[in-house]
Design goal:
heterodimer, A: 295 residues, mainly alpha, MetI-like fold, B: 304 residues, globular
């Protein structure tokens, strides 16, 4: 060891210090570039939303006459594209919360069977879930559209809820199966000896101990449902049944749209997931390290 | 097998395959009914919403004539080339940058930590508003990017979305912008899981800089990196939003990828069979990927 150390020629202390400053300066530069890259499209959104209608095409880097008028229009539903904004906002919440509930219920029940009850051929369930997890949802959109009509769910929120539950549950099963390894089997066994039936074990032991995984997966499912566009667009077409995502994309149908209203709607639509994400960041990070996530 | 269990099953053949625990081995009676009842909801969802759509899709796209029609369609061939570039560049460039950035975010400075919080923002933002904003951002006439170029360098930027390759580049850029934070976090978690003792031991042996990376970081991260690449290849292959909202497939359907072209054929042109065939033509690539991923992600081995 001493041979290698003495065999190398290190620079003088001054050289070392300069090198350290150089690295630090490069890091600061990289950080600045990264911050601009991250912020630019977000800033663009605010810039357009704060513009008044006539200023949008002026091509300014900041709004000439910043005003919150666009937000007022959206909140008071003062434009014909936005006539049902709050109703659609509610629809988005219904879809998000129902998807979350169904995903947690179906996912936890299935993973309980596979990991705690050792059902014969339970591996087939795991494989089925894994296969669904790695099939791109957009590739199944066309048949999904048809089968939802066959099931009689066209233009019904349930169609979207069920499709999104289908795509969120595999991830839930995956994460729950990973996480439940940290819960000792002895707990189940002693409860069984005390005469608990499987449902009691599931309800009173398994679920409470799985709380962190439930929060992580619940947030994931809620965000997945809130952010989804394609399935919402294909299955919901009336203003009453639409979610905000579909209503937002409707602005693109016309060339004469007020883009500041559109961006204000976009910001209001983006706020709940951003708040939720930053609120549950700790749990989300835990979920990430527990397993891969569908981005 | 736990101690309790061994005690419980003492006297019987304990050497039974560990997967089938003696306590439940061939579970009977009410236990079995409970297990079936618990599994039933997912099995029902799987058959009603996964097996049935897949079979229906195969039924829609089973005519060879559809594929003959596709392969003679120049728009389809353009979409195939676009998809290959989109997935190849979008996934690999992003993952490489994410890998480098995960190293950057390991630095223990207060401003690096603050930057990480900001850096997550694209991932927390829903795809639709983000891509809409990028669409206006790169607009040739009054988009902010060209304004910025004019403001800083005094030059007039091109009309990005009127060109096949620049339009495709914008789509890929938007996809990278949206998803890079997510993969950076995954790789950062992977890096943080490497025990510090390994680095200390390597330092004692004289490994610094590049050698430290080659002999410690790289071997421990290689598998995670590969799984991330494969997983994201599948996600990118099925990505609809970036292309649909940034370039809209334009100009003249030159930047379409398979996912958007399939939807366009099925719902804009009302040729659902052709749309399904477009998507199904990706199966020769998708199926091997799915099989490899299922092996890699199986809970017993996968530790992504």
């Amino acid at each position: 060891m001493s041979a290698t150390t003495s065999g190398r020629q290190f620079g003088s202390p001054l050289f070392y210090r300069l090198q350290r400053w150089g690295v630090e300066a490069l890091c600061l530069l990289l950080g600045a570039v990264l911050a601009v890259w991250t912020i630019a499209p977000i800033y663009n959104m605010w810039e357009i939303a704060l513009d008044s209608h006539d200023d949008i095409f002026a091509g300014a880097l900041w709004p000439a006459h910043p005003s919150l008028d666009a937000f007022r229009v959206v909140v008071t539903q003062d434009f014909w594209y936005l006539a049902h904004f709050w109703h659609q906002f509610g629809n988005s919440f219904i879809v998000g919360l129902s998807t979350m509930g169904l995903t947690l219920l179906i996912g936890s029940l299935a993973s309980f069977t596979v990991t705690r009850m050792h059902l014969r051929n339970g591996w087939m369930l795991t494989n089925a879930a894994l296969m669904t997890y790695v099939i791109p949802a957009s590739f199944l959109a066309i048949p999904f559209y048809r089968i939802m009509q066959i099931y009689g769910l066209a233009n019904h929120l349930l169609a979207v809820i069920l499709s999104l539950t289908t795509f969120a549950t595999p991830y839930a099963i995956f994460i729950f199966s990973q996480y439940s390894k940290s819960i000792p089997m002895e707990l189940d066994e002693s409860a069984r000896i005390d005469g608990a039936n499987p449902f009691q074990i599931y309800w009173k032991i398994y679920l409470p101990l799985m709380a962190p995984a439930l929060v992580a997966v619940g947030t994931y499912a809620l965000l997945l449902a809130w952010n989804e566009y394609l399935y919402n667009f294909l299955m919901l077409s009336t203003p009453q049944s639409m979610t905000v995502a579909v209503a937002l994309a409707q602005f693109l149908n016309s060339d004469e749209s007020p883009w500041n209203f559109m961006m204000a709607t976009a910001i209001l639509y983006a706020l709940p997931p951003i708040i939720l994400y930053y609120g549950f960041r700790r749990y989300m990070a835990a979920g990430l390290t527990m397993g891969g996530v569908k981005g | 097998m736990s101690v309790t269990q061994q005690a419980l099953t003492a006297g019987r053949a304990v050497i039974a395959r560990p997967a089938r625990r003696a306590l439940y081995g061939g579970i009977m009676g009410s236990e079995y009914i409970w297990a079936i009842a618990f599994a039933l909801p997912y099995v029902a969802v799987f058959f009603a919403f996964v097996v049935y759509p897949i079979c229906y899709g195969v039924y829609l796209g089973d005519q060879p004539a559809l594929y003959a029609e596709l392969f003679s369609d120049p728009r389809y061939l353009t979409a195939v080339v676009n998809t290959l570039i989109y997935v190849g560049v979008g996934v690999n460039l992003k993952m490489f940058l994410a890998f480098l950035l995960s190293g950057f975010f390991m630095r223990k400075r207060w401003w690096v930590k603050a930057l990480l919080v900001l850096y997550i923002l694209p991932w927390a933002t829903p795809a639709l508003p983000a891509y809409m904003s990028i669409h206006w951002f790169v607009n040739g006439q009054w988009g902010m990017l060209n304004n910025l170029l004019y403001f800083v360098f005094g030059i007039d930027g091109p009309v990005y979305l009127n060109d096949h390759w620049m339009g495709l580049a914008c789509n890929i850029g938007a996809y990278i912008w949206k998803n890079m934070p997510f993969w950076t976090i995954i790789l950062l978690a992977g890096r943080m899981a490497i025990p510090q003792e390994l680095y200390e031991a390597a330092a004692v042996d004289g490994a610094t800089g590049m050698r430290r990376f080659l002999h410690v970081t790289y071997p421990l991260m290689a598998n995670l990196y590969l799984v991330c690449i494969l997983l994201d290849t599948v996600f990118a292959l099925g990505d609809f939003n970036a292309t649909f909202f940034v370039s809209g497939g334009g100009p003249a359907m030159q930047t379409e990828v398979l996912a958007t072209l399939g939807i366009r054929y099925a719902f804009t042109v009302a040729l659902p069979r052709l749309g399904v065939a477009t998507v199904m033509s990706a199966l020769p690539v998708l199926i091997p990927l799915v099989i490899i991923l299922m092996r890699k992600l199986r809970p017993s081995e996968g530790q992504l």
